[in-house]
């Protein structure tokens, strides 16, 4: 195998993962567990977290304030994850040269985009049976003014979202269990995920604590597994190793693979071959492209780029990738600027 690892050694892992998924789903169908016991778990987790010893919060009373402040920061943790990942890579042998795309199915490269589902919330539930079948979110605060960072799908189905105030989330989901950040647990699970990916292929690009790209062109070239089957094997191995669920998109490049993951979520996989890439992109809202936000959408709408609803009135529909591709480059440059307009067109 050009990419390392044997994709045929996972039937037991896949069967175990499927059995666990069935157990989780059947538990959800029976309804929530014991919210009172789950609240006790959340409170215990907060009491055992030294960074939540909320006494004085200024440098005047606490000379170690800045150190503890950054150690308790989610953004700081995410930003410093790169150093943890690089330390992990130091113990691995150098990756060999990437296999030629001609080795893949149909002569194309096969890239997986692996994205852990509701990572912080999923890790919070590991080993805590009291949280099974309950809506779970993560935030430093348990008070109404705090903001949610991550929600599992039970919480999302009730309307909870990342960035939402806890008070509002509790209105939508009274049984919501809010767990504190547990950075060491996240790191341990993330390293297990990356170890699993590197066992599959030496060509892994770490994006964040819960997201990575994997080139599996060599595995696909062997003809023993389709890209979809490889993706399912990866998901099964990750679940068997960590107890957390990953969604996997695959395609001929990183952009297509990442967008395919949006179709895979939650708890699934989706493959877009190169032959279908153009049609896959055509109907996709341009807002789903990385880096395209509200400001960009407003500028495109002002230039009339997009589908006119019912053929009358101003254009208020979100433009699709096909709309952008059909727009003259001069219009895109006028709307977004010379560089950004060309970049969006070439995306």
Automatic annotation (TrEMBL):
GO terms for molecular function: deoxycytidyl transferase activity; DNA-directed DNA polymerase activity. It comes from the Eukaryota. One of its GO terms (cellular component) is nucleus. SUPFAM superfamilies: DNA/RNA polymerases. Coiled coil: none annotated. GO terms for biological process: DNA repair; error-free translesion synthesis; error-prone translesion synthesis. Residues 111-293 form the UmuC domain. InterPro entries: DNA/RNA_pol_sf (IPR043502), Rev_trsase/Diguanyl_cyclase (IPR043128), UmuC (IPR001126). Pfam families: IMS. Residues 19-28 have a biased composition (Basic and acidic residues). Residues 1-41 are annotated as: Disordered. This is UmuC domain-containing protein.
């Amino acid at each position: 195998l050009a990419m390392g690892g044997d994709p045929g050694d996972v039937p037991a892992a896949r069967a175990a993962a499927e059995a666990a998924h069935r157990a989780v789903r059947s538990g959800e169908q029976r309804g929530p567990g014991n919210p009172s016991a789950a609240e006790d778990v959340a409170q215990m987790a907060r009491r055992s977290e030294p960074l939540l010893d909320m006494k004085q919060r200024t440098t005047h009373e606490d000379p170690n304030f800045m150190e503890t402040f950054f150690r308790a920061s989610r953004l700081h943790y995410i930003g410093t994850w790169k150093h943890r990942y690089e330390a992990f890579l130091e113990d691995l042998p150098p990756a060999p040269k990437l296999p030629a795309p001609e080795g893949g199915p149909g002569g194309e490269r096969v890239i997986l985009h692996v994205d852990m589902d509701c990572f912080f919330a999923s890790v919070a539930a590991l080993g805590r049976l009291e949280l099974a079948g309950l809506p779970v979110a993560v935030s430093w605060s348990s008070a109404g003014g705090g903001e949610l960072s991550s929600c599992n799908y039970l919480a999302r189905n009730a309307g909870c979202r990342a960035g939402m105030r806890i008070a509002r989330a509790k209105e939508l989901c009274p049984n919501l269990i809010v767990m504190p950040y547990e950075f060491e647990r996240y790191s341990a699970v993330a390293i297990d995920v990356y170890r699993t990916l590197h066992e599959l292929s030496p060509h892994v690009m770490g994006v964040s604590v819960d997201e990575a790209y994997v080139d599996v062109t060599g595995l696909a070239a062997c003809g023993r597994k389709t890209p979809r089957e490889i993706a399912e094997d990866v998901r099964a191995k990750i679940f068997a190793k960590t107890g957390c669920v990953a969604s996997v998109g695959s395609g001929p490049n990183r952009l297509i693979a990442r967008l395919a993951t949006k179709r895979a979520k939650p708890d699934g996989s989706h493959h877009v071959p190169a032959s279908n890439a153009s049609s896959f992109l055509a109907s996709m809202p341009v807002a789903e492209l990385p880096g395209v936000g509200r400001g960009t959408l407003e500028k495109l709408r002002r230039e009339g780029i997009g589908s006119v609803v019912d053929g009358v009135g101003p254009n208020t529909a979100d433009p699709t990738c096909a709309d952008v591709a059909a727009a003259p480059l001069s219009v895109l440059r006028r709307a977004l600027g010379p560089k950004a307009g060309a970049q969006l067109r070439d995306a």
